[in-house]
Structures are given as C-alpha cells and as structure tokens.
Amino acid sequence: MYIDVNDISKRKDVCKAINISIKPDDILKEDSEIKVLDNIDFEGKIYMDEDIFYLDGKISGLLALTCSRCLEGFDFPLNIEMHEKLSLVPNDEDDSIIFVDSDKINLNELIENNILMSLPFKKLCSEDCKGLCQSCGSNLNREKCDCENGNVDPRLAKLKDLFFTD
Q1: What are the helix (H) ranges across the chain?
Q2: Strand 15-22 to strand 2-4: parallel, antiparallel, or no bridges (unpaired)?
Q3: Average pLDDT, stretch 70-80?
Q4: Do residues 70 and 140 make contact, with C-beta atoms less than 8 angstroms apart?
Q5: Measured between alpha carbons, how far is 162 from 18 in angstroms, rounded to an integer?
Q6: How many CB atoms lie within 10 A of CB 16?
Q7: How many other CB atoms are there within 10 angstroms of residue 28's CB atom?
Q8: CB 68 within 8 A of CB 95
Q9: What are the CA-CA distances from residue 74 to residues 3, 19, 34, 125 (Å)?
Q10: Which residues on adjacent β-strands are paired with residue 104?
Q11: Which end of the chain is more exposed for a tag (fewer CB within 10 A), N or C?
C-alpha cells in the first residue's frame, strides 16, 4: 500500500489519518521463517513539520514463529509502536530520516521493516523452554528421555575433573 504525501507537502498543517489492514499474502512474503496468520493492522497518522514527514502509529497482528530451542511452532502476537521520519530531501546529517524519492510512501515496506526489527533475536515459545535432547532429539518439554548427557568435548574433558573431584 502506498500513501500519497503530495497534499501534505503542499499544505503543512494537514494531518492524515491512516487505518489499513494488510492481508497475510501481501506482507513478509520473502521471509520463509515467519508466517502471517492474520491481517496486519496499522492505525496511525502522517504529518509534516518543516521538510520532514512524521509517520506514527501502532502495528498489530498475529505471526507464527518457530522456537529456537525446541523447533515447535508458536503464535506471536504483534503490538508495535511505529515512529518513522521521512523526507523528500536527502539528509546526510541524520541517519534516522528515511529518504523518499517520490510523492508516494511504501507503507508495506515500512511496516515489514518495523516488524522484523521488533522480533526477538532468539525466538522462544516460552522462557522456560527446555529444547531438544542433544542425543536423541526428543522434545524435553513434552517427554523426558533416558539419554545420558555426559557427552563432553574431549578437548574440554580435563575441565570436568576440576569441578567433579571425589
């Protein structure tokens, strides 16, 4: 979805309300690790102050992610505040200002970037996720395995003696 900012740039006192809903097939198509389960909603406004457009709003929706420890899928609700500064004039002094080379702003791209930046680096289904057994691969959240977790890298075996002296 594109926002035409031509009318805002001509009249500086205009504040344009934005209320959109993006279908799951229209956003985050390039990322195979993230699945959009429901529409991504954006509610906000855009206005201009001097030469800078300010885009403020809230992104909400529901994603499906894969846990980094147990590899199970889980739902991840979105509730993100978005604050962007855009300009039609290149600005080398302020890195936070996004240069826009036309009168139309690609809102989908801005929303995608904000979603990706808000995701945790390590995606966990829960904080106390036990992960997978290193030996048999069973999910330790659902079952307890009988594997012995004594596998130690032979290069570090001598360190084990320092901690376990009988």
Answers
A1: 6-10, 107-118, 157-163
A2: unpaired
A3: 93
A4: yes
A5: 63
A6: 16
A7: 21
A8: no
A9: 33, 28, 11, 6
A10: 4
A11: C
Amino acid identity of residue 9, one-letter, is S
Strands 104-106 and 15-22: unpaired
pLDDT at residue 35 is higher than 70: yes
Q: What angle do CA 76, 55, 95 make, to 5 degrees?
A: 95
Q: Looking at residue 39, what DSSP letter applies?
A: P
Q: Provide the token pair at 38.
A: 């429901």
Question: What is the rounded distance in angstroms from the CA atom of residue 143 to the CA atom of residue 132?
Answer: 10
Indicate the pLDDT class of residue 122, thresholds 50, 70 and 90: very high
Adjacent-strand bridge partners of 74: 65
Q: What is the pTM of this model?
A: 0.77
Amino acid identity at 10: K
